[in-house]
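Running this now, will post back.
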Amino acid sequence: MATSDRRIIHRFPLDFRVDFIVDGNYIISCSRDISLDGMFICTRNPPPVGSHVNLIFPGEGNLDIEVTALVVWSKGKGRYKNSGMGVQFLSTLPQPVKKNILKNVDRVMILGDNGKSA
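Update: finished.
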């Protein structure tokens, strides 16, 4: 069964900046899709499945919000066109992060996939 068939919470295509820290390294990255329980992060060298990463979401007033996540699957450079990792949030997302995600999801739903008003 494909991963998307097992998902209970729908993921939305959403491209925005989300950085992460793994093994003391700060990596600048972006998302490809997101839900309230996990997301896909584009990165050339994803950490191994089972790794814990600290996601850094931009917050209001130059205050970043950090969320711990678990790498549940990855696809590395060379084997796939779009390398990256699927992560599962290990705690409930803070309200400012949820609010930002929902605001961006609403924008995507209004504009549609082609960036034009529906």
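Residues 3-111 form a domain with the Thrombin, subunit H fold (CATH 2.40.10.220). More later if anyone needs it.
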